[in-house]
Amino acid sequence: MSNNSQLPKPGFPEEGIYQVYALCFGRLAARRVHDNFMRRDMHDGPMPMDFYVWILRNMHRTVLVDTGFGHRASDERRIAIDFDPIEGLERLGIDVDGIQDVILTHLHFDHAGNLGRFAKARFHVQDSEVAFATGRFMCEAQVRFPFDVEDVVALVRHTYAERVIFHDGDAQPLPGISLHAVPGHSQGLQAVRVMTARGPVLLASDASHFYANVLKRAPFSLTVDAMMTLRSYDKLMALAASVDHLIPGHDPKVRELYPSYDFGGIQVSALHERPAPHDIDWLKGLKALS
Length: 290
Known about the structure:
Layout: E1 19-28, E2 49-57, E3 62-65, H1 71-77, H2 85-91, E4 101-103, E5 122-126, H3 127-134, H4 141-144, H5 149-160, E6 164-167, E7 171-174, E8 177-181, E9 190-196, E10 199-205, H6 211-215, H7 226-239, E11 246-248, H8 253-257, E12 260-263, E13 266-270, H9 277-288
Parallel strand pairs: 3-4, 4-5, 5-6, 10-11
Antiparallel strand pairs: 1-2, 1-13, 2-3, 7-8, 8-9, 9-10, 12-13
């Protein structure tokens, strides 16, 4: 815990080493096991889901990974949030208008809202994700459900304003930050690998919603292509130095594993710090059961 009202200033002079924080801005407490897996041949029970954005910081830049969603989408989809994630960033002392780079792991509503609230940012996204979100597959209600048309239109407007950087597969857009195509949940999903003082941290985003998805090779219920998802699991494990360097996209376990700090009433989890050893043993046990 901390008595400070803002995130501490980054202490890494190296351009390619970052502090990485997970900011949880909402939760789906009523979610159950059978909601989170394609296969339902397991005991049902509570399995809540968190909503995150991720903050990458050093002395040279602040990079945001995903932008969450705000009150409009919360009201329309009847998903309560604890606070608006952009307001949360501001309460942490982050100048949102000063952010130069935003990485969008994919364009689902809970990852790509609020795009009009960044004055200068360039948005990094995969070619295939934009093609998917604006193409013929969006004629199908079941496929377009996790997308928000206002968010997609906002990204198109940013494209016309020359503020979108398209990537075709793996890329390294900034020192110490690399992007990795891991399709399956969505057509153009990308994971983000970030160098920290403890080694690389892999933000899997929705390539694995929970640790159990990748460790038990059990795809999430909303999956465009199950075989692509399974191949992406292989890629995630190859990119992560170990399970304690892999960060799933929605797992509340992240907040238990990693040291948490309160800054002005906003709690963040420090992913650049080492997780609790006994909890890592639990994760390794989960992998052994797969």
